[in-house]
Amino acid sequence: MRSPTWLLVAALAACQSAKAPTDTAPATPELGARVQQLSTRALEDNQAIATLAELIEAAPKRLSGSPGYTDAVQWGLAKMRAIGLQNVRAEPVMVPHWQRGAETAAIVGADGVPLRVTALGGSVPTPPGGVEAEVIEVRSFEQLAALGEAARGKIAFFNRPMPRALRRTGSAYGEAVPQRSNGAIEAGKVGAIAALVRSVTTAIDEHPHTGAMHYQEDVTKVPSAAIATIDAEELARRLKLGPVRVRLELGCQTLPDIEQANVIGELRGSETPDEYVVIGGHLDAWDLGVGAHDDGAGIAHVLEAVRLLQACGVRPKRTIRVVLFANEENGLRGAEAYAAAHAGELARHVAAIETDSGGFSPIGFSCSLRDEAAEQLRPLFAPLAEIGAGVFVPGAGAGGADISTLHKAGVPCFGMWVDGQRYFDYHHTEVDTLAMVNERELALGAATLAYAASVLADR
Ligand SMILES: [Zn+2]
Fold it and tell me: Which of 336, 339, 337, 364 is nearest to 349 (CA)?
């Protein structure tokens, strides 16, 4: 496999031979005007929120494998054609098919306090009638492993909070989320009979947050559920007073994989149409809410971005390829299928941008490139400061799960950053709804993405 550095050097060399003789791309007055034009048009037309509302109406529930996801694909194809994109198509992806069932939990005893829980995606069910056991609370995998035999037959309760003090909520999420993704494995290793995981949010509220979780082949699979933070606090309070027993019942099931699709369309480049800037988000969403922020907002961003470019008469030199990825939430099969299907042309992918952080006010971009390579691009992003989106952070990894396969293949990758202070209040819950998305913030995100895609495609 070619190294990222090799591709980068080649890409930059190609750009520079065709364009300016200088090493850095200067921010020109024209680029400042482009930011103004795109953002003004985005706010005036106010189409991003309309696009998001259409998606939610057409496919409110669109978890991979579900009929709702198929509806979302049909909507995406029709919407791309309506916007005037070319080469609109669905590319097949085999996706997992996991279904939620009835789910209940309660503290066992005289008062039988109910606990608000939801199965984590991919969990095995409990036996009919549920499981009942004493709860042991831990804050780390090390603490659980140290308990050893004391954990056998118990319900492992992972209660490490998402750290409040980190200003970047995505980083805070990263600190706590291993409990959710791997808690069932660690619980299985010590002979616990289920995993109960504190919801990954700093909010103290009544909404359990679902999300992906994994099993390991050689470890007994135990059911795994998220518990609302307010109930996690109550459970922890009672555990300080003495032993607590909980009954948990999950009726979820895993069906055979089925074929669904990524949705792809293009705004063809004016000079080198066989070179690509990919912009993408994920079309699937968890099933509790309607995925308005995660990632309906990203879908609205990318579709509105290419509409805006056309409406403003901006025709980039390279092709901007819009990809609505399948199965980000519980498998990443869409990302894998895209990279496999397009392996032969990845060397002609000059950049990929993902938007999967919610529909909040844009603040800028992360960039997988480092050092000189990133610094050469910085001036192109600087004009976004005019609308508060001028942050540019090099060396920040893939920029999003859907483009992580492109990052691995050496494609320079960018993640659109938004103000994430409220994102994890809604993330993967029943309250991730349209009403939680501000139309002006969403529109500015679309304008920001349109600008970034266009300057990368023009370079
Ligand atoms: Zn997402």
Answer: 339
In this structure, what token pair is assigned to residue 251? 């009726």
Report yes or no: 352 and 406 within 8 Å, Cβ to Cβ: yes
pLDDT, position 413: 98
Instruction: DSSP letter for 226, please.
Output: E
245: phi then psi, degrees, rounded to nearest 5: -105, 140
Averaged confidence pLDDT in the chain: 94
Residues 6+ apart with CB under 8 A from 360: 293, 418, 419, 420, 421, 422, 423, 438, 441, 445
In this structure, what token pair is assigned to residue 87? Answer: 């080469």
30: Cβ contacts below 8 Å, ≥ 6 apart = none
Compute, in angstroms, the gap from residue 286 CA to the centroid of ligand 1.
9
Tell me the per-residue pLDDT of 35-54, one tens digit each, with 9 for 90 and over.
999 999 999 999 999 999 99
Q: What is the CA radius of gyration of the chain?
A: 23
* Residue 1 exposed, middle or buried by CB count within 10 Å (0-12, 13-18, 19+): exposed
CA of 107 to the centre of ligand 1 (A): 32
Residue 177 CA to ligand 1 centre (angstroms): 14
CA distance 61 to 430: 11
Report the predicted TM-score, pTM, of the whole model to 2 decimal places.
0.93
Q: What is the pLDDT of residue 111?
A: 83
Ion ligand 1 — residues with CB < 5 Å: 294-295, 356
Instruction: List the structure tokens of 308.
Output: 């805006």
Taking the centre of ligand 1 as the mean of its atom positions, its distance from the CA of residue 239, in whole angstroms, is 34
- Note whether 195 and 187 are within 8 A (CB): yes
Handedness of CA 448, 450, 453, 458 (dihedral sign): negative
Query: CA separation (Å) from 303 to 54, 55, 308?
Result: 12, 11, 9
Domains present along the chain, CATH in parentheses: 4-97+256-458 (3.40.630.10), 101-251 (3.50.30.30)
Nearest to 294 by CA among 202, 352, 365, 357: 357
Return contacts of 72-77, CB within 8 angstroms, 24+ apart: 72/283, 72/284, 72/324, 73/260, 73/261, 73/263, 73/283, 73/326, 76/263, 76/283, 76/299, 76/324, 77/263
Q: Which residue type is seen at 347?
A: A
Cβ-Cβ contacts under 8 Å for 263 (sequence gap 6 or more): 73, 76, 77, 80, 88, 89, 90, 91, 283, 323, 324
Between CA 400 and CA 44 the distance in angstroms is 29
Active-site annotation, residues: 328
Q: Residues 324, 280: contact at Cβ < 8 Å?
A: yes
